# Entry
Amino acid sequence: MKIRRLLSVLCLLSGASAQQAFAQQVPFGRSDIPVSNADRVYAADQTSNTVSVIDPYNNQLLGVIRLGNPVPGSLSPLYKGQLLVHGLGFSPDSKTVAVVSVGSNSVTLIDTATNAVKGTIYVGRSPHEAFFSPDGRELWVTVRGEDYVSVIDPVAMKETRRIQLANGPGMTMFGPDGRYAFVCSSFTPELAVIDVASQQILKRLPQASPFCPNIAVSPENDEVWFTLKDVGEVQVFSAQPPFEQKSTLHTGPITNHVNFANNRNGKFAYVTIGGANEVKVFRRGATPQLVATIPVGNLPHGIWPSGDGSRVYVALENGEMAVAIDTLTNKVISQIPIGQTTQALVYVPNAAPAGNDTANLMPLGEAGNTARLHLAAAGPSLPNAQASVAVNSLGLLDLVQIAAEGLMPTSQYQVYLAGSGEAPFGNLEPLAVLATNPDGAGIVQAIGPLKTLAAEAGTAAGESSRRFLIVTQLNNPSQVVLQQAGDSSSGQD
# Structure
C-alpha cells in the first residue's frame, strides 16, 4: 500500500515537472534552460562590421568583436577584414558562433568561451545566413548571390559539397530531429525541402512572393514559418510530409524575422515588423491568432528566444539597441546598446560557462554615436506614410538609413537634403532614390558628411549648419510626401 502511494506521488511530481519543461530554441528543440550569466546574445552589426555580445542575465553589453573596419577604410583594395557582417548561427554545443559577412563572402567561426576568431571560410557570392545541423557536424551556408547551399565541415573549416537549388537561396533551417532541412529563397518563389541524409530535394513548395529572408522550424518539429519581406506576409507549412501549406498571415511592412517561444500561456510565434516598429505575437494552432502587438523601437530585425522561452530578444536595425521582451507579459523589459544597422540576432545558452568573460572584446566606441530621426507624412495624399532614420557615424563620414512605409507600392521616390524642415524647404540636394516593395515599404542608404542632419537645434551653430531630410515624388520635388518631424535623438557619444 505504501509503495503504491509512493508511486502515485512520484507520477504526480513527474507530471508536474513535465508541464514546466517546454521545448525551446530552434532548431534544437531542447527543454528549458534558465537564463544565466553564462548565456550570451550575439548581434550582427552590418555597418560597424562588429558582433555585439550581451550578457542577458544583466541585460548588459559586454563589448563587441570587431571583424572589420567601417567605411571608408573597408573600401580599400588592400582591405583584409570582413565586410557587411550580417548573418548568425550557432552550434548545438553552444561553443561556436558562425558569422556571415555578405560583402566579403565569408563565414567566420568564433569561440564563444573566449570571443576569439577560430577561422574564416570563404564561400560564393553574397552568402546570407548559416546554421549548424542538429548533430553539429555540418554548417549549411545559403549562398544567396548564386544558386546553392555550401556545406561546410566546421572542424576542417572547408566546403565539402554544394546542394544545387533555385536562384537566390535565403536561409536554411533544420528540424530538431535533423531529418529535413528547409531552404527559402530570396529571388525565386520556392521553398525547398531537403532530405539531410541524402541531400536530395524532396519537394519544392510555392512561396507567395520571391523575397524570403528568414525561416524557422518549430521546436516541436511540426511547423515551418517563413517571412516574406517584400509583401509583408508570413507563410506556415507543415514540417512533416507531405509538407502542406497551413496558413498565410498578412503581418505588415518590412516583415523581417520570426521565432518561437513556449511558456505556461501556450505556444507562440514572434515576428518582427520593421516598417511598423513592432513585434507581432501569434498563438500557434490550426489557425494562428494574433494575440499581442509590441512597440519596440526603430526597424526591428533579428529575433531569438532565451533558452527557457521566458524572453525574446530583438535587434533594432535603426535603433542601435537590442530589446528584451518578457513573453508572459509581452512587454519590453530592457534596452541594450549595440552596433550599427544590426541584422541577425541569436541567443546562445551556456555559451560562456566561466561567466562574465570579456576577453577579446572591444568597447562600442564610434559605433555608439548614432542619431535617430523620424519622417512624417507631409500632406493628405499619403496620410499613413512615415519613416525611421538612423544617422550612423563612421568617423569622418556618416551612413544614413531610411526605412519607410505607407508609400505607393512598387514606386520610386527622391530623397533630398533640404535647407529647411518646412515648406518651401530651401535648397534641395539629391541624396538617394527610395524604391518601395509591393507593400509600399522600402529601405535606402546613403553615405557622406551627414552630421548636419543631427546638428543640435536651438544653437546658432546648429541652426546655421543644420540640414533636413525630405522625400518627394521622383520627378517632382514640389510634391513632398515625407518631411522631418521633431528633433533628433542620439545614442552614446
